[in-house]
Amino acid sequence: MKTIKNKTIIPLIALLAVIIAIPSFISQTSAQTLQYYPSYVYVGSGPDPVGVGQQVSIVTWTAEIPPETPDDHKLGSFGNRQAWSDISITITDPNGKNETIKLGVTDPVGGTYYSFKPDIVGNYSVQAHFPAQWKNTTTYSRLYAASNSPSEIFTVTDEPLSWLSGVPLPVEYWTRPINAYNREWSKIAGNWLGDGRGNPYTTAPNTAHIAWTKPIQYGGIIGEPFEDVSYYEGTSYEQRFSHPIIIGGILFYTEPLGHKEYQSRDYNPVSGQSLVAVDIRTGEEIWRRDAAGAQKGTIYRYNTPNQDGAHAYLWHTSGSNSIAYDPFTGAIAFNVTNVPSGAEAVGPSGERLIYTIGGPATSRTWLALWNMSKMPTTTLLSTSQIEQLPNDPALSSNTNAWQWRPSTRAGQVHDGNTGYSWNVTLPAGLPGNVLFAFDNIIFGGTGFGSSGQSVFHDTYSIWAINTEQGKEGEVLWHIHPKAPTANVTLQFEGTMVTQETLDAGIILVRAKETMQWIAFDIKNGKQLWVTEPEPQWMMYSRSVGFSEDKLYSSGYGGQIFAYELATGKRVWTASIDTEGLESVYERAPLSGPTVVDGKVYVYTQEHSMTQPYYRTWKMYAFDAESGDRIWDITGAWRNPAVADGYLTSLNLFDMQVYAFGKGPTALTIDAPSTAINLGNSLVIRGSIIDKSAGATSSALSSRFPNGVPAIADENMTAWMEYVYMQMPKPKDITGVPVNLYVADTNGNYRLIGGTTTDENGYFSYAYKPDIAGKYTVYANFDGSESYWPSQAQSAFVVDDVETVTQEIPNVMMPPMEMYFVASTIAIIIAIAIVGLFILRKRP
Asked: What share of the chain is helix, strand, coil (3-state, %, to 5)?
């Protein structure tokens, strides 16, 4: 009877608990329906097996998705969406010890997880528990019954699991797209977005090897009667190739139409101006769009429970209107109206940001952040849902709000007025504008001069404002910097503040007339150091670039100065070639530095090009650590962009876009097709040819019918100037090394020697085989700084030579006396003959 009573009491208690709980729910409305539902909960774990101390992910889920209710926002789930509450798991270790863990609320489809690290070897089990819970709406009150999952077992061993081995970085010619399996390649696959951040995730050329060229207009010498004058190149306020962008191995730029160029003074392209996309490895045109242009690119990673991945766009902005182009096709992806003006930045997920500031210029009153990703029309939210958003913020976590769909909205047009993340009030006393902007901090100020304007006062102002979430608008500091000496202009513009300087904890200001750099602490605005003065020509300069630990300054002096970011100490100075009689300069003026992959690239330039162009002008690459010159090449270059190991730039000498980088090669090898006898030598011959797109173009194929030879790195500049720039053919050049291997008839593989190709790409090698049989011969070119490697093979046969033994007959020899008698008789006969001749001669 006791057993029966116990069995009866337990259900009664449970039923009583349910009865007590019901009235509070069914009293909501007489229209409600009371419902009872079973529940099913499941559990899984992985990896299995796993090593001691390694992480096991334990996942639970239910058969039914949690229903939506008016009280979902009280659960604390992601996005205040519907969820189950209080699911727990019990883990039992190999010794039978139980541990029950209560999990948080589930996601909107009923799933959640727990990370667990086992500490002993053996079999573990885990079971999930779903507690009874009510879900109530205005039409029903529903009780989901409690349930338990089947137990899941996983095994823990004393041998830890190893991660799948990664994929090494490429050592051969490679192309896009990069397979998603090759995660390690991301460190060399960065993009050049034209957003001021450069590209720290790429290799860059170590020689002047040219992969291809592509004209954008007439260029170079016109011909008589114009003597030595070239076609106009646009330096007088009509810069060509102003905004090169590289995304996913595709280079984008806008072609000019006569004097109409796409640059800061005219961002209104017309028919005849085209936005062009070309393959960065080959120069092959992929698409072009008439009457279009792009100033920058964005790659935005959109990550929600419904969608995770990146989206690339090319942006054309004119006034308050922006067009986002699809870089893969050139089609318009979407339009944005009412885009604010201000300081642009890049968000943590790559989104386009604009900081805009308002109020009187002498004392700003508010700061707002515009964010391309915050416009609700870029999602799948319906028009009615968007209208309800201000009164129902939970809609921002609706499943439709978790899907990026800017191209599916009717008309593909979005109102930028709906894209503000926040707007905050500023404390009084902050003058000027936002000058440098990042996703978590901005810098602004007023009173600064420029290279063409000197100002002499002590009322410079710089301020820093925190823009981190929850701290928006917090003024970090406000200073009034002083120049090193009186009556000196301070400059605060260009690239004086970058992510590299922020990582180093500083911002920079330039003292114009004394040619000095001044560093300030980003935490408190205190001055940290001042550099020594630079030469006089550098008064015109304000261009600067950065590596992780150095500042590089270059400009009109024709020199580069490297300083430690931590101390401002000058660590090296590099100079370009002198001008001689070509120009009035001692050394030509230099561009600002482009710092990529441990190299500092600069090029000679002038505000307006002088006709005829100076023959001394070049692009230079210097070692960022030592200042040693790595390579240079003739030309008047503009706006380099670097990605995927290639540097692209426009050469004003011929108005062609050049791509510098490693080229693929083709190696041929030939061995005798007929057998040779063992003991003889044979000649192995072949060639190594440059297979870059430029080298295989129709123009160069006509000049080099046997292919453009691969040439040694140390001769590369002169060779490229001969091949692509019509310079005289260089003398005393060498090719590239070739290693030769054989596999003999016994399967032995060995190196037989090496040689070097000549100026025609040809090589030969004499080899004397040591055994008979069939040989396979392999030729390997291991690659260089200019070329990717290549291989080839051939075969030859060596015949064994048979030794012929000739039998000598056994002949009986006569005795010595016979030799004596015969010789005596011969002498007597000879004397007689002589005597006879003498008698005949008598008269």
From this structure: 15, 40, 50
Residues 364-398 have pLDDT tens digits of 999 999 999 999 999 999 999 999 988 887 788 88
Closest of 757, 758, 796, 801 to residue 777, by C-alpha: 796
Q: Which residues have a Cβ under 8 Å from the Cβ of 627 and sit 6 or more positions away?
A: 560, 562, 572, 573, 574
Angle at the Cα of 637 from the Cα atoms of 634 and 638, rounded to 5 degrees: 170
Which of 62, 100, 102, 57 lies closest to 82 in space, CA to CA? 62
Residue 704 corresponds to which amino acid? F
Alpha-carbon span 213 to 658, nearest angstrom: 5
Burial grade of 704 (CB within 10 A; 0-12, 13-18, 19 or more): middle
Amino acid at 534: E
- 449 CB burial (10 A radius; 0-12, 13-18, 19+): buried
Under DSSP, the state recorded for 326 is: -
Cross-strand bridge partners of residue 646: 643
DSSP 515: T
Enter the tokens of residue 174: 């490679």
| pLDDT 10s digits, 579-623 | 999 998 999 999 999 999 999 999 999 888 889 999 999 999 999
- DSSP character for 616? T
Asked whether 324 and 315 are in contact (CB, 8 A), the reply is: yes
Amino acid sitting at position 322: S
Of 557, 508, 554, 521, which Cα lies nearest the Cα of 537?
557
Cα angle, residue 659 at apex, residues 657 and 665 outer, rounded to 5°: 140
Alpha carbons 492 and 464: distance in angstroms, whole number? 13
Tokens (6 digits) for 309: 């991945």
pTM above 0.85, yes or no: yes
Number of H helices, E strands in the chain: 7, 54
Q: How far apart are CA 258 and CA 263, in angstroms?
A: 14
Q: How far is CA 50 from the centre of its chain?
A: 35
